[in-house]
Amino acid sequence: MRAVRAVAAAVVVTAATLVLPSPALAAETWDVPGKATITISGHGYGHGHGMSQYGSEGAAREGLGFRAIASFYYPGTSWGEARGKVLVEISADTTDDLVVRARSGLTLRDKGAGERTSLPANGATLWRISLNRKKQDRVQFYDGRWRNYRRLEGQGSFRAGRAPVTLVTPSGDRPYRGWLVSAAPSRGSNARNTINQLPLDSYLRGVVPLEMPASWHPAAVRAQAVAARTYAAYERAHRSGPLCDTTSCQVYGGYAAEHPASNAAVDATRHLALLHEGDPAFTQFSSSSGGWTSAGSMSYLAAQKDPYDGWSGNAMHAWTTRVQDGAFESAWPSIGNLRRIVVLRRDGNGEWGGRAASIRIVGAAGRVTVSGDTLRSALGLRSTWVTFEVKPRSS
After folding, report:
1. N or C end of the chain: smaller count of CB under 10 Å?
2. What is the model's pLDDT at position 19?
């Protein structure tokens, strides 16, 4: 405990002495001959805001606990709790009906009537919520053909107690905890989305192992559980609709994605979350900081040197890729033949002056000025923390 308190004290000092980005550096220029191979060297993977996932593993290997890891990557936050339920839209279910496998304990809920009904073991293999010809929600079962069971007064959903319910999607079966809800995306719409409603910590069981290897150090996986729980609570409070199950929110795979080690991390950090001014923090995270985190939209998403990211197992800490000049010309055809790459501005943190914020791409026919994020997206780079080397090629 003395060691943990010492680490926590060190984190407080770090938070008070964060290195601010230096002023914009002088422009760097690389001339490009008619045909060239461009070697791009970089650091990190992702936007670099908040926790580095590889860094959390490196910190855990150095003996830091999950609280110290989380406090380091989110300086200025405090500890609290996040509870309640979340709604997650299931992107794999692209149809307007909700179809589930029959199983023991399957329950139907009719929100409009305020009723719950235990569905019978009647030989059905499938149950479905869909619209009838009058555009009313109805429940049907399949025992060789679809048969009507009842009409719904409102929104319908299925659950099987604590057991998962298997959702049938065009891409295959997917089991989920909690309720599977057939919901209209807007009032009066005849379309239906499938929404998974479940407790926050149950949701995390299907998130954490898809965001970080469950086999990593328990302290790192616990830090990931805290970051993911807090992020979900923040998104729940700031989104007008349900969470998504992709990288635009957090990757969520439901019951099939769960792993005993990551489930243990969720249980060990039960309800724990990071707060800022009493509310859940925007705990962004990415794969690797490359040795410096980058400043985000919140004060606790600060740019600071990351001593934990560069452990031997992190292949994302430093990387190299090669592209031909044509990659730039294809991404920005208006420039014509590429003649020059100019980095106009960096964030001032780390090797080469840090992440590229503004880049000018000059060609024989024109020029464009793009952000580092645009360059990264167009060329498929791991991060915006890059530098270039240009060599002519004969053909």
Report:
1. C
2. 44
Structure tokens at 190: 């005849």
Measure the CA–CA gap between 45 and 50, rounded to whole angstroms.
13
CA atoms within 13 A on the CB side of 20: 3
Q: Where are the domains of the chain?
A: 18-48+313-392, 51-83+212-286, 86-200
Could you tell me the two tokens for 98? 């909700």
Residues 6 or more apart in contact with residue 387 via CB below 8 angstroms: 28, 40, 41, 42, 343, 352
Distances (CA, A) of 212 to 164, 209, 255, 303: 23, 5, 16, 22
207 Cβ contact partners less than 8 Å away, ≥ 6 residues apart? 228, 232, 250, 251, 252, 253, 257
320 is written with which tokens?
């190299």
Structure tokens at 159: 């659950």
Contact between residue 66 and residue 223 where contact means Cβ atoms under 8 Å apart: yes
- Asked if 107 and 180 count as a contact pair (C-beta separation under 8 A), the reply is no
Per-10-residue mean pLDDT for the chain, 395 residues long?
Answer: 32 38 70 95 98 98 98 98 98 97 97 96 97 94 97 96 96 98 93 97 98 98 98 96 96 98 98 98 98 98 98 97 97 98 98 98 98 98 98 82
In the prediction, which pLDDT does 280 show? 98
Residues 224 and 69: beta-carbon distance below 8 Å: no
pTM of the predicted model as reported, rounded to 2 decimal places: 0.90
Angle, vertex CA 303, rays to CA 15 and CA 3, nearest 5: 35
Angle formed at CA 332 by CA 328 and CA 336, multiple of 5 degrees: 85
Query: What is the CA angle 293-298-304, rounded to 5?
Result: 25
Torsion sign, CA atoms 241, 208, 174, 102? negative
Q: What CA–CA distance (Å, rounded) separates 57 from 177?
A: 29
Do residues 157 and 149 make contact, with C-beta atoms less than 8 angstroms apart? no
Whether the CB-CB separation of 141 and 149 falls below 8 Å is answered with yes
Encoded amino acid at 90, one letter: I
- For the chain, state the CA radius of gyration: 25
Q: Is-contact 332 324, C-beta < 8 A?
A: no
Hey, CA dihedral for 91, 93, 99, 102, is it positive or negative?
A: negative
Q: Are 280 and 233 in contact (CB under 8 A)?
A: yes
Per-residue pLDDT tens over the stretch 53-72? 999 999 999 999 999 999 99
